[in-house]
Write a structure and sequence with these properties.
Elements lengths: L1 H4 L3 E5 L13 H16 L4 E7 L2 E8 L7 E2 L2 E6 L2 E5 L1 H11 L8 E2 L9 H14 L4 H4 L3 H7 L3 E2 L2 E3 H7 L12 E6 L5 E7 L6 H13 L3 E5 L2 E5 L4 H14 L8 E5 L3 E7 L8 H5 L9 H9 L9 H12 L5 E5 L2 E7 L2 H10 L21 H9 L6 H8 L4 H14 L3 E3 L12 E3 L1 H13 L3
Parallel strand pairs: 10-14
Antiparallel strand pairs: 1-3, 2-3, 4-5, 5-6, 7-9, 8-9, 10-11, 12-13, 14-15, 15-17, 16-17, 18-19
Length: 455
């Protein structure tokens, strides 16, 4: 069942976990019985072949992938890697819709009509589509119901979920978590202030971008001669592209808003989502075709000129950062969680210190002022002990410490609070796989400490 619902596969009966033939005493009987048993239980046909190796019999059961959902005793299974997943709830909904050529955002929504949508949001789309030239003028000349029909956002007498998300003034009435939350964190646990960007999803990325640039990020200050230059830690175009990707590709069936966490030395964007079936992180980061999780929502953003339709969103983010000379983002995927992190460079952190008045720059040529945030001696030792990503026990051994409480309070928590150390799994702080690494700020402090040491 799991193979039939995935990409097909082969089940080998009569080999152990190391691939060695263990043999089957009743192989000939199973060869005759298994095809009928599978047909009766699953309603599918499989090919069962008898093989012999080293005088021992074993069976190979070849299962083809099936376009329609296959269930076993009322439950649906999906083979993923070396495990079987039982599909339930939103995951089962997505699977069944996909098998019938539908997507989550294409499902119709009862008890909502065009008059319930926000005319201002539709007008913003019309203006951007007119400027982009990607929508036929005849479609733009239609009234609002006609325009939505041209955009394929209706089905019979119903609006689709995509239309409600894109243009309703309060889409959270229908889809829990259809919003963006922004917070400023002095450390992983110290939230200083926050905002929520709601309303129509079509406007959310632009509103979030403006709020982040005006409230959450400081422009770094540098000087060329007497000319003052202000730069953000990442190109606004790259941040805008990342926000658009989060809004278009997120899994709206998961009732949690997109989260944008701003720290002293980095910015992280989280959204519930998953890679297209069969994709790896290597494929995502390389050249690939466009496979949006919500194709109807993506279509509207494309017609408005907000995105391309060539699967180059990730590449555009990296290219913008390279051209601006800022650090490339990090992308992490953990099951159904997608993180995009923009680390801040050491030069930017120094420039922020200038803007805050902690350092007075000279105005002769390029300025690289000496800025070292104060840290305790314990944190200083901790930073020097790091070699890549390390666990608590590895750090304690490197420091020669045995008192876990003393290490946790005086070293680790102090390093996290200073923004010099970060968790590799910040969304799962108690994970047994948790490790720690230096932030850009921590690396800068460590480098400065080494250069200031004995020559």
């Amino acid at each position: 069942c799991g193979f039939a619902n995935a990409q097909g596969g082969m089940l080998v009966v009569g080999r152990d976990d190391k691939g060695r033939v263990s043999g089957l005493e009743d192989a000939h009987r199973l060869l005759e019985e298994l095809p009928n048993k599978v047909r009766d239980a699953l309603g599918i046909l499989v090919t069962v072949s008898l093989r012999t190796e080293q005088g021992k019999d074993y069976l190979e059961i070849q299962v083809d992938d099936h376009p329609n959902p296959i269930s076993y005793k009322g439950s649906y299974y999906l083979r993923s890697g070396s495990t079987n997943q039982v599909l339930k709830g939103a995951a089962l909904d997505r699977f069944i819709l996909r098998r019938y050529g539908r997507t989550w955002d294409s499902a119709p929504v009862p008890r909502v009509s065009v008059v319930d949508l926000d005319p201002a949001a539709i007008a913003r789309f019309r203006q951007r589509a007119l400027e982009s030239g990607r929508l036929d003028p005849d479609a733009l000349a239609e009234d609002d119901p006609g325009l939505l029909e041209k955009l394929r956002l209706t089905e019979s007498n119903y609006l689709k979920r995509s239309a409600v998300l894109l243009f309703h003034p309060d889409p959270e009435r229908f889809v829990t978590g259809a919003a963006m939350k922004i917070g400023y964190f002095a450390s992983e646990t110290d939230l200083r202030y926050q905002d929520e960007v709601g309303g129509d999803v079509f406007s959310q990325p632009g509103k979030a971008l403006e709020l982040i640039l005006t409230k959450y990020l400081r422009a770094g200050i540098s000087y060329q001669g007497i000319r003052r230059i202000e730069r953000f830690p990442m190109p606004p175009s790259a941040l805008r592209e990342a926000l658009l990707n989060a809004a278009i590709h997120r899994d709206y069936a998961t009732p949690a808003p997109i989260q944008i966490r701003v720290y002293p030395d980095r910015l992280r964007i989280w959204n519930p989502g998953q890679l297209p079936e069969g994709w790896t992180m290597e494929k995502l980061l390389g050249a690939h075709s466009s496979r949006p999780h919500n194709p109807e929502i993506a279509h509207v953003f494309f017609r408005a000129g907000e995105i391309e339709a060539w699967g180059r969103g990730i590449q555009r983010v990296f290219e913008a950062c390279r051209e601006a000379g800022t650090p490339e983002p990090r992308i992490e995927f953990d099951g159904r969680d997608v993180w995009v992190e923009f680390p801040f460079s050491e030069a930017y952190l120094e420039q922020v210190a200038i803007a805050a008045g902690r350092v007075t720059p000279e105005v002769t040529g390029e300025v690289t002022p000496e800025v070292t945030p104060e840290v305790t001696p314990e944190v200083g030792r901790l930073l020097l002990a790091f070699e890549g990503e390390m666990s608590r026990s590895e750090l304690m051994n490197a420091l020669g410490l045995r008192d876990e409480k003393h290490f946790r309070e005086s070293y680790l928590q102090a390093g996290l609070a200073a923004g010099a150390v970060e968790m590799t799994r910040p969304d799962k702080p108690q994970s047994r796989f948790q490790k720690y690494r230096l932030t850009s700020l921590g690396s800068a402090i460590r480098a400065r400490s080494k250069s200031d040491g004995p020559k």
